[in-house]
Amino acid sequence: MSNMTTSDRVAASREAKSLVLAINEIYKKTQESNLMDIMKLITAKKRKIEKRLKGVPTV
Question: What number of other Cβ atoms are within 10 A of residue 38's Cβ?
Fold first, then answer.
């Protein structure tokens, strides 16, 4: 994954968002705790991708 392009990261971030939204719809109906755990994992990965997209600030 270290060779992801910016467009790869944007696509991955969007995909993660749509996955979380879809899982959330199921979660609302079932209240399955493992679905919440999956959403948390996806969100954590999404944050890492977005942090990389924004870049590391130079001092």
Answer: 15
**Residue 12: how many other CB atoms lie within 10 Å:** 19
Cβ atoms of 26 and 45 closer than 8 Å:
no
Residues 5-42 have pLDDT tens digits of 889 999 999 999 999 999 999 999 999 999 999 999 99
What's the pTM? Answer: 0.77
Q: Which tokens in the block code for residue 34?
A: 């493992």
Q: What are the structure tokens assigned to 49, written together?
A: 């991708």
Length of the chain, in residues: 59
